[in-house]
Amino acid sequence: MKNKKLIKTPIERVDFPEFLKYKEGKVRQIVDLDDKLLIVTTDRISAFDYILKSLIPFKGIVLSMLSLFWFDYFEDEVKNHIISGDIKDFPEVFRDYEPYLLGRSVLVKKAKPLPVECIVRGYLSGSGWKEYLKSGEVCGISLPEGLEESEKLSEPIFTPSTKAEEGHDENITFEKMCDIVGRELGEKIREISISLYLKAHEFAYQKGIIVADTKMEFGIYNGELILIDEIFTPDCSRFWPLSGYEVGKSQVSYDKQFVRDFLLKSNWDRKSVPPPLPDEIVSKTSKKYLEIYKILTGEDILTKFEVLK
Question: Domains in the chain, ordered, with CATH?
Fold first, then answer.
């Protein structure tokens, strides 16, 4: 217990001093430090483009620390926006907020985000499965007839989407993405995205986990393409346990699909603010986030931190 660091969880937001300029996304607070950004990942959870009222303990810490793990793992493949995840390297003003920032905060380069989300699908699931049922295609890519739900594709496909500030992201073709970012940059992004997916899939598979699909974001920093945001976390990827994988149905998952599934089975109309999650769903979701972190990294977050009451 002595070696554990005190943290606060769950947290909805951190109330910083008024002189700090920051904005809030669905899950993150982003503090503008002129030439850098401080990103704080809260315990909020979103589904179907709504921010839920319920908070998921340890969620923000898992997302932040798992992203750091993957950014480090891919360091030789592509540059990223991370400067430091150590509070000792943060500006002095943040030292008094240590329990609120430990494990869930990173200091990053201030890149210019590209206005597209880079999605790689190795298996037919989610919106890709629904689109395939209607047209036999996913984002303009024709797929063989007779594929089943959750089936592994012969090779991963790159299916970008627009990045909406509000409302729904829109799936687009690769050609449309090239119209937005340019052909040369588009081809480079597609190549890197598929390469990272294949390597993450191989790594996770050895741990008994299938990475079914994932979303990445890129930015431009000093004229160079770099990875930004989060990478291969339960919020931007589908993680399926290999032991229970079975083609032809939806899969048990270590990601927020668990929450989506609960909401789909509830009486919520998907047009109004979602109801709070039951305590049991909150607890199970938190355990899923903690468990996938432990499976992939070999580390138990609960041995690192003690929750501040």
Answer: 5-110+297-307 (3.30.200.20), 114-252 (3.30.470.20)
